[in-house]
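call fold(seq) -> tokens
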Amino acid sequence: MKYSINEKYNCVVIEMKGKIMGGPDAETFRNDLQKLIDQDKKHVIIDLGKVKFMNSSGIGIIIGGYKTMKANGGDIKLCNADKRLKSLLMISHLNTVFDTHDSLESAVNAYSNK
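ret:
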């Protein structure tokens, strides 16, 4: 799993790339989220536009991140999921947990409207 973290529009955007399948990357991701929390950066958007594959462990990474952010007064929104990922979120009923958006702009606006 590869990702980049950038601050844009008063949010933190985590752009995921490639395959999200768990493993040692999960701990790195969790540590990066904790650093954001420690810096009081709690409006996080995960951009899934460049994700080619996600398995159940990958879903677990994102759920774990969501729980961590929520427990610390933050939030994670998802954006740019393709049809396959949207279907996976629907089948797993995670579309009822995550605030998902078709574009980064829409996710950013959802934070602006709070």
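The chain is about 40% helix and 30% strand.
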